[in-house]
Amino acid sequence: MEVIEIQVAEGIVPIVDKEFSLAVGFFDGLHKGHQTVIQQAIDIGEELHIASAVMTFNPHPSHLFSNDSGKIGYITPLEEKQRILAEMGIDTLFIVAFDRKLADLTPQEFVDSVLKKLNVRHVTAGFDFTFGAKGKGTMDQMSELASGDFETTCINKVADGGEKISSTRIRQLLAEGGVAETATLLGRPFRSIGVVVDGDKRGRQLGFPTANIVPGKELIVPRNGVYAVHFTVDGTIYDGVCNIGVKPTFDHPDQARKTIEVNVFNFDGDLYGQQVIVDWVEHIRPEQKFNSIDMLIKQIADDKETAKKILSKKD
User: Is the pTM of this model over 0.85?
Assistant: First the structure.
């Protein structure tokens, strides 16, 4: 998959020598609704015998217009988004820098100075995609703004359980610990990618050594609690049980730093400094404080057995 970066503020909008069937949107999560939009663009490209392409934006608009507390965490970081799109068979990915210049373009200017310059022959987007300053441009208007230079397709709402599949819905599910439900909407498990760091070795002292993981900056993590997970390092997938939280049995919750700790089953080796993948399979229980270390050890052993049972049905 070819990756082309576009910076409107710097006047970097390449002139390309082939035509595209383009899917456009932010596509955070690349959930089943996004996949429907993108697959339609791929299908139209095949029908027209032209290349398929996706246009996404980086960073999320909230990172431009909000302070730190208002910034929306990513479901899929850009690198992961690229991997998934390549697997879907997209020919070209356009990554458009979302900056003040882009945000201030009128809908007509966005069509003229971005889409038309890319030799787009067909544009597909979801029914709720908006573009141009203050999101005033809609898919109902895009065909008129194109002035016959390209055709458009608008994809209607894609639902699950009668409710629209959306990035907002997925973020809410993750905030509630609903990783299994999230996987249904994504079509794959929710994934965290991070680096293993040196911890306090407390898990090893309890008889359950853990990999302490720092997830990528600005990524969403599920609600505090215990989860059955798949853990990938160096391309090998292991089963595991993960605790995410502040370790209230040992630390004061208001002062402790949130950690992601995975007890990896049937693994013996040094993970420090390595990039690893955690695929969240199912929530087991909320995080809780125990009155004694013995009670904690017993619960961890029970959690491990519960995770094994859950994961045996998934493998």
Answer: yes
Domain with 157 in it: 2-163
C-alpha to C-alpha distance for 172 and 182, rounded to whole angstroms: 9
Is 126:25 a contact under the CB 8 Å cutoff? yes
- Looking at the fold, whether 225 and 292 belong to one and the same domain comes out as yes
Q: In the structure encoding, which two tokens stand for residue 30, read together?
A: 């690349």
Rg (CA), the chain: 22
**DSSP at 112:** I
- Per-residue pLDDT of 249-284, as tens digits, reads 555 555 456 789 999 999 888 888 999 999 999 999
Tokens of 122: 């067909």
| Domain CATH for 302 | 2.40.30.30
CB-CB contact of 279 with 191 (8 Å)? yes
> Would you say 150 and 123 are in contact if contact means Cβ atoms under 8 Å apart?
yes
Domains in the chain, number: 2
Same domain for 55 and 153, yes or no, is yes
Q: What angle do CA 76, 41, 110 make, to 5 degrees?
A: 75
